[in-house]
Write a structure and sequence with these properties.
The chain is an alpha/beta fold and 332 residues long. It contains 11 helices and 12 strands. It is 51% helix and 15% strand.
Length: 332
Amino acid sequence: MQLVLNTHGLSLKVKDGLFRVSGKKAVRDISPEQISSIAITSPCLLSSAAVRLAAESDIAIYFFDRFGDADACLRSPYFETIATLRRKQVYFSDRKEGSAWVVRQFELKTAGQITNLKLLHDRVYRARAILTATIQALSDSSQNLSEKFVQIPDTEWSSRLMGWEGIHAKQYWAAISQGVPDIWTFAGRSRRPAADAYNALTNYFYGMLYALVERALFGAGLDPHLGILHADEYDRPTLAYDLIEPFRPWVDRFILSAILKEKLKPDGLVEQKGEGVWLSKSSKKQLIPAFNEWMNQTVRWTGRQMRREAHIFRHAAELAKLIRLTIERPGS
């Protein structure tokens, strides 16, 4: 697991060969054998003994800024597995196995989107026609997707997949807009800035999800900037863009559930800034704890029962394992 220190004032020390995490309310001892990496997102106190134990155990310590970007790292000078893995990562992105992995992410994403549409279908009678049609369209289009893309030339698969995903996204968001209450309807996906409250929610929590995915990639020893589908975007965490796809529907489900249970209303949720709208500070204060609680709920996904956040870290670790198995040595 990744040990995340996200509370201001925590201390990380060593007691009897174990990491000791101390806060105002509790003390916890953790074996270094249980930890793959340490992520620090708030000001904390680290003892030199804790840093040394991490280095001896091949545990990297990452420091993240308030936007979720890793801006510093401590690790052993002998921690060579990361460099080796990242060289393999480059070769993997040019292999058929790499493109097949990306296609699989969109299969998983589509399955999650269909689940969300079925949620609306069962609860919103007035939109059942478009929801039924969209569920069928997405199901038909994504059936045997991996087999279809195996036949596509290497020079064309990424553009073809992006085109396929764009069509899916347009259908999906149109159905979502029809399925939510009238006060939440929107004209389509608008990013930075959002044009409405629904898109403001989606943009903000996708951003939180990006930070979590990026931490998971760092924890697995992968470089978030070495993407596969989005490989050509300079100085961007492009692998995070690839890995995040199956988990976007979780954010959508979080928002839809809150709306359908009438826990959210557009009034007071956003504030106008320039040409767009953004979540207000008061709404963030309310929603961030709810989202963190949602990500810590236990769910079954791809045959495993665990917390949503743990699923993301496991998915990143499985990608690292796949890369190691596919590329025996760089250049093979």
